[in-house]
Amino acid sequence: MNHSRRAMLGIALTLAAGPALGQRVVEFDVTPRTFSHSDFSTVEGRRAVQPLPFAVFGDSSPNRMRSDTGAPSVTPGRPPVAGSTERAQALYPDQWALLGSRPTREGVRPPAGDQAAPDGGVDFLVAPGAGSNRSNFAGTTGVFTQYCENCDAQNVNYPQIAIGALFFDIASGGSASCSASVIGNNTIVTAAHCCYDHDAEENNSNFTFVPAYRDGAAPVGAFSGIRARILGAYRNNPGRSNDLCLIRLAPDAGGNQVSFYTGWLGTAENFDYYQNMHAVGYPGNIGGGQFQEVCTATGSRPPQGCERNNVLNMGCSMTYGSSGGPWIISYRNGNLVNSVVSGYDSVSCTGDFGTVFNGPRFASNNLGTLCDSPGWC
If you ran DSSP here, which 8-state letter would residue 162 be given? Predict the structure, then answer.
């Protein structure tokens, strides 16, 4: 991504004009507040966190953003620094021992009432592939392959190590978890509804990112959030196309940025809606939010009458907690993030709940705008 850069004012909340359609960016501090009640530094503290439900957006503006038709562009990723695994093993021997110390919990699910389908959709316990076969989904709803990346054994290979669980305090109370991925030297991308609490009309805080998280273990440490960026339009008219957030992370105690251990994934903007993708995240309905789960399917564009500009649908059984997890083109062979998990709208716009979800298609006027400042993407 070859964006022009502009310095930001060093204040807690900054509004900056973006290059696309006068779009504005909201930047805010996300360090722990004095009333922080969560401890994400411990194994048990992380295991106790509940996955964040999908955000529910109104339909006052079905097409919140134009469908960006700019030329496709790619920012390449980078693998971890040589020797970083050995460095992590020396720094966190207890966490590496933990990786193989507990039986896997693949298939653990919360009570059905905890994740009821919104908007009249089927319950999340519906088997993958069940449900309606609607021809208006090019990436057919319910058609996907789902598997676990680190259930049977640890997986700290690239690109899996650049994807992790994100823990935080919710402004309106409590704590929650989402998913995120590293896309820069000290930057992760996730969903905006993980960063901003519409109930409280405040930003969330106390962000802790754990790369390659596995059942409480933090094999390369836990990185604290410093600042976050969302599109200004998201606060006023939130939807799938603007449900994006960048978080800048502090280095660890040894002065290493997260990318020292993880490298970073590339990004793809303005690509066609129909791509074969892998979605990766930590859903509560599969593995109890403790394992890195994957779906692979062909993306599609929602039908007419739905929010569809810069919005992607994709078959997958992951639900709450997968929010913010990356959708990757050329998984393990290029690793270009093209979207993140946003959520679910309705049977008519998304498909059957628990067999499909949606996310923002990365474009110049969403991710490109957020990245347009020094020290971010």
Answer: G
For 59-85, how does the pLDDT look when each residue is reduced to its tens digit (9 = 90+)? 655 666 777 667 899 999 999 999 999
What does the pLDDT read at residue 31? Answer: 83
Helix or strand (DSSP H, E) at 168? strand 163-169
CA angle 105, 106, 111 (to 5 degrees): 80
How many CB atoms lie under 10 A from the CB of residue 24? 16
| Residue 356 near residue 369, CB atoms below 8 Å | no
Q: Do the Cβ atoms of 365 and 23 come closer than 8 Å? A: yes
| Pairwise CA distance, residues 247 & 209, whole Å | 10
Residues 243-275 have pLDDT tens digits of 999 999 999 988 999 999 999 999 999 999 999
- Confidence check: pLDDT of 121 > 90: no
Extents of the domains making up the chain: 13-33+49-63+71-98+105-370
- Chain-centroid distance of CA 254 in Å reads 26
Average pLDDT over the chain, rounded to whole? 83
pTM recorded for the entire structure: 0.85
Residue type, 236: N
What tokens does 314 get? 């994709």
The correct CATH number of 13-33+49-63+71-98+105-370 out of 2.40.10.120, 3.40.630.30, 3.30.40.10, 3.30.1360.70 is 2.40.10.120
E strand segments, 66-162 = 73-75, 145-148
Q: Report the distance separating Cα 336 and Cα 266, nearest Å.
A: 4
